[in-house]
Amino acid sequence: MIREHAQAKGFHPQTLERWLSWETSARDALLSLALDLKISENHLRDLMDWLEEAALRDGAAIEALLARQSIDDIKTDPRLGRADKLKRIKEQVRRLRFPRLAQTEDEIRQNIQALKLQPAIRLSVAPGLEGGRLQVEFSAATSEELANLSAQLNQAAAKAEAGEIFRLLAGRESDEKTK
Amino acid sequence: MEHFKPEEVIVERGSEESSICRNICRALPEVPFRIVEPGDLFHDRAAAAGERFGTAKRKLYVAKHRGDFFKKCPGSEGQVCCNYFVINFASNCPMDCSYCYLQDYLADNAELKVFSNVDDLIAEADRTLSKHRGVFFRVGTGEITDSLALEPCTGIVRELIPYFAEQPNVLLELKTKSDCVDSLLDLDSKGRVVVAWSMNPQPVIDADEHGTATLRERLSAARRCQEAGYRLGFHFDPMIEYPGWESDYRAMIEETFATIDWHRLAWVSLGVLRDTPALKRTMRARFPKTQLLTGEQVFCPDGKLRYFQPLRVDMYRKMTSWIRRNAPTVKIYLCMETREVWQQVFGYAPACEKELGNQMAPSL
Q: What is the ipTM of this complex?
């Protein structure tokens, strides 16, 4: 079945070989997902990387990772289309694979939200938090608007949440542990 | 550690009278030698495809190097560079670390080779060093091989040290994971040679640094080199993050500084595990059980995968604090890291590669 599916989708032989090298229950679990969501080869390879590595690290079976409640909830959610399901399931698997990165990203996001900036100001961080910088984007149509946005940014910079964002980006979370 | 003993030595015709070939003959009398014409040197390359990188390490080729010996270290795009130069007197390495970038870098040219034309190497180095006496050069031999693992059979470093010891504007760094220092101990390096070790805790050595010296053996060799008058360097690189890494690395640092006199250390570098998607594929195929693939690594702008920045900055800061407790003023630098990471770890970043290179020089 996997072979037929891979052939029909034109997958590279290495992808197929890798998939077939998995335990039967693991490869069947991924096949079920691949068929339901019509996963393209690139997305499938990402999932294979993350699942293999998380399973190796955690000593877990791949099928057990894919059977998690958080993933099943998305799979069975009738409100979601196929593309949305795939996007959210990939994010869940990414979170399994990169739990501390995901947690740091969540904390930064929560702190950004807590700054309660106008929608005209967008704060973001680079993928993977590389660079250690907070990106700030805003645009203004008048000098008054620019002054307002700047003032709001100034106020935000003085808040504890802003300091927390930079602390998280600088990897200072475990300061206390080193003492 | 068990010293390298190839299954066969294959000598390119024209190299059989070289001092390197004679050294090898003397050191390995029981190993079969074969002389081949230059065109036939690698005729079995295609036949040995598959696990070629691993099998290539079992034979030793002796041949002339026809390219440049002396090169600027390529560094990595966008990273702070330490203005390092490299001399390649051999290609590939008899040891077999799971994370070794040579698995990918030398995939199509995997034969373990030592170059017989040492005179050409010295002449080329001399042209550069004499022409630029006002420039201070840090030169390493461990870019595409281990500097000392082949030394018991080739004696090549023993031939290089007397030349470099006489140069006023160079520091030769011999970087190794071996304990093969015996042939160096009676030479006077005149302060121009740093013997440096890549360091990892014993659990990492056991899991991923196959065929290398144990931590104790490395430290014992370092101590002997220090007693013989050499400056030392330590490269805590690649640092591996895993549950319990802190206690293992901290214990290693304490053991290191309890064994050697840190006042006579030239430098210490820190670097985290770096790989690429291609290298990961090779690692997965050659070392499927290695835990190195499971770290929280992300893509960096230079195309390499590293632990995500806050995590690795935290690692660097911890390592720095443990080192500083044992060696308060030792020079520490980061290998292949961005200015932002330098800033987060040390509170400053070198303005340019020259500045970092110069910081290494004055203390010598």
A: 0.91
